[in-house]
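Appendix B. Chain record.
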Amino acid sequence: MKNFLELCEARFAARKFTDEPVSDDDIEFLKTAVRLAPSAANCQPWRFLIVRSDEGRAKLRQCYSRAWFKTAPMYLVAFKSIAECWVRHDDGKLYADFDLGIAVEHFCLAAAERGLGSCCVAHYDTRKLRDLFPEDGLEAVAIVPFGHVAADCERTPKVRKSMADIFREV
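Structure tokens predicted for this chain:
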């Protein structure tokens, strides 16, 4: 098992997958990791759709037409519930997007721990997704294709700002 920093290094935006199925054991592990994610005031303002059927994948692929996206054997669609999210009292700030980001990253790190790849996709046809996968009272925030990474999947080096550029102390 990798330590946390090794997982952070291993996790990357995988954009090419094999057709090898993800095991039920791995799927349960990923679901558990998401379920354990923290949220503001423990509201858990999320719902997730796992898309693995041929019909579901064909529908979802209409929402984002990139060739690499179609190589994924499975997808996670992350939805937020405004009605269930915590709202900061001082300024009315809604925390659903923040909370969902944490849960999705739990999913991606758990996938990396299991040797699976993932990629967060936010640039998709939101209207089409809403029409094809209607979820009452919910709004889709991200699609996460995931699966076994193809051997020839490009892994670009992580380029990060320096510590001095992103942190300061007082």
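Further analysis of this model is presented in Appendix C.
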